Amino acid sequence: MNNSEQQTGNRDQKKEEVAAGEAAGQGSPRATAAITGNGAPPPLDRAPLAYENPSFLNSADGRLIRIVSEYCEPLARFRREQIQDTVVFFGSARFRAREEADRALELLENTGSRQAAPNHEQPASAPEIASGQATELRLKRAVAAVQMARYYEDARRLAQLLTRWAKSIPSQKHRFVVTSGGGPGIMEAANRGAYEAGGKTIGLNIRLPFEQAPNPYITPSLNFEFHYFFMRKLWFAYLSKALVVFPGGFGTLDEMFELLTLAQTHKLAKKITVVVYGADYWKKVFNLESLVGAGAISPKDLELFQFADTPEQAFELLRRGLTENYLVPEAAAAKPVVSPAPNHDEDLMAGWTVEDFLSPEIAKTRR
What we know:
There is one protein chain. By secondary structure, this protein is an alpha/beta fold. Helix content is about 45%, strand content about 10%. The strands form two sheets. Strands 6-5-4-1-7-8-9 form a seven-stranded parallel sheet, sandwiched between helices. The protein starts with a helix and ends in a 9-residue tail after the last helix. About 30% of the residues are buried.
């Protein structure tokens, strides 16, 4: 038998083995390979652990785990960083300040986006206004841009004042930490002011379909990104003891009225100070007196917030509210701590209370 005939015979024999395997219900590659070996299937690779299986975690079946993760992971970091409570800043993300000589502002394409809006939507420049070439839309945006530049600087200044004061409060934990949505515009201004004052500052970012990124002034260990809007909202409300609302759009209105509703319905078992910044802007956006006149809300609901027009005025409202609602009651409730005799063998965490381990202070809700 020559080589060619031998090879042909081998191929025919393999075909017969495959056919026999298929007849026995073993038509898979693993079953076929088993026939040529010692009768056992080849070794299997280890199956991934459920919590390391991306196809499961990113599926609809894994949604509950993803939701719980956006609660547990931030909570663990807040405890590790010793964050007790926060003051949340809301405001427009659609403008950002350019620190150049002309203080020009660039309008962003969408909330939180890095991409600039088309040129015809940008504020008109000084030469265009002087030459009469500016469209009505660009002329209005140029005027608004000047106002937004002021609000950016005011938010930055207010965050500085608040952070310096909060750092002076004697506490094992960080009090009234400036928190924002983590993006550009007013959010960046708030984080920037706290950063410049030497304090920790939190950014609760949201993953969006277009390109966006956290602003650089957030404390790195307190930089969060959420997939679910409702989990992000939970963390805005859970730790906050005060809210500052700067001029903004849909997102700002959504967050403001959601927290006002929680306060109005007494759902939060805590007092929250709400400062609405820029009375002229907001009184053109909504007329709450009309709601009172229509009987949709109570006149006392207008006492849920206060207007402010300067950083100093807003800071005084915050300081007074946080002091009266929290610092004074905490001081009155505090019990004298008796220092134990020194013991070099004692645990490093001796003297800590249960509350120290359970920080941050999580807001209670009324059942």
